[in-house]
Specification:
This protein is α+β, with helices and mostly antiparallel strands. The protein has seven helices and seven strands; from the N terminus they run E-H-H-H-E-E-E-H-E-H-H-E-E-H.
Length: 239
C-alpha cells in the first residue's frame, strides 16, 4: 500500500467528519483531553468545523490516504502574527489507529510544511496534550524542535519563553533505556516565579553562583562545567 496526502475537497466531507468525531473521542483517554474537549467550540458538531475549514482560504485541510482510501486528516490555520509575519498553527492531525505507523501521518505533516513554506510562513506551531509523548515525538521528529522546547518549558514551569540556541546534549544508557537529552537556552518572557508541572514537586530559580552548593543529579554538574555554564570558582564542586 502507498501512503499519500492531498488537499481535501468537498466530496471528502463525510469521511472528514467521521474522522473528526473519532479524533475527539480519542482525546477522552488522554491527560488534558477532557479540558481540550470542553474548550473545543466544535465539540458537538465536528462536521460544521470541517465544512467551514474547507470553505476558509486561511485554513489548510489535507487528507491522508493508503492507496485511495482516506484514513486521516490534518488541519492548519495560517494567519498574520502581531509583528506582521505569516504564522502557521497545526491544529489537528489524526490518523485512524489501524492505519498508523505506516507513513500516513508523516505524509500529512510533510504536506502541511510544504504549504506553510509556499504561503511564506516564517514559523509553524504544533499543539500536543500534556503527557502525550507519542504526539510530541511525532512533531519533534519532523523538525518542530523549537516549538517543542517552548511547549515543554511552559508545561514544566508554567512560563512563556523564546527558544534560543542549543547548548549541548548528553546520552544516558542502561540495560533498559537509551536516552538522549538535548539542552537549549531560552529567554523567559514572564516575570512570575516558575510553577512545577505534575511530574515534579517544586520548581525554583537558582543563581549560577548557588549551583555548586546544590545536590545535582549525576552528570549535570559536569554538563554545566563543560559548556561554561558554571563560574570557574564552582568547578571543583561539580560532579
Amino acid at each position: 500500500m502507498e501512503e499519500s496526502a492531498r488537499s481535501a475537497v468537498p466530496s471528502d466531507l463525510e469521511v472528514l467528519s467521521s474522522l473528526a468525531v473519532a479524533a475527539r473521542s480519542e482525546l477522552q483517554g488522554k491527560k488534558g483531553g477532557d479540558v481540550a474537549d470542553r474548550l473545543d467550540p466544535h465539540r458537538d458538531d465536528p462536521s460544521a468545523r470541517m465544512t467551514s475549514a474547507l470553505e476558509d482560504p486561511g485554513t489548510v485541510v489535507l487528507v491522508g490516504a493508503l492507496d485511495e482510501a482516506v484514513v486521516g486528516y490534518a488541519l492548519m490555520e495560517i494567519g498574520t502574527a502581531p509583528d506582521g509575519t505569516i504564522h502557521a498553527v497545526v491544529e489537528e492531525v489524526y490518523v485512524d489507529p489501524p492505519a498508523r505507523s505506516v507513513g500516513v501521518g508523516e505524509a500529512l505533516l510533510d504536506g502541511l510544511l510544504t504549504v506553510a513554506r509556499e504561503r511564506g510562513a516564517l514559523a509553524i506551531q504544533s499543539v500536543a496534550l500534556p503527557g502525550d509523548r507519542a504526539t510530541k515525538n511525532f512533531f519533534e521528529t519532523h523538525g518542530m524542535v523549537v516549538a517543542a522546547v517552548v511547549r515543554e518549558f511552559r508545561e514544566e514551569t508554567g512560563l512563556t519563553a523564546v527558544c534560543g540556541p542549543m547548548i549541548g546534549w548528553v546520552e544516558q544508557m542502561s540495560a533498559e533505556h537509551h536516552v538522549v537529552i538535548v539542552d537549549f537556552a531560552v529567554t523567559v518572557l514572564d516575570d512570575g516565579p516558575p510553577v512545577s508541572g505534575s511530574d515534579a514537586d517544586e520548581a525554583v530559580w537558582f543563581a549560577l553562583s548557588e549551583v555548586g552548593a546544590l545536590h545535582l543529579v549525576d552528570g549535570l554538574g559536569t554538563f554545566f562545567a563543560e559548556h561554561d555554564l558554571v563560574p570557574e570558582h564552582l568547578l571543583p564542586l561539580v560532579d
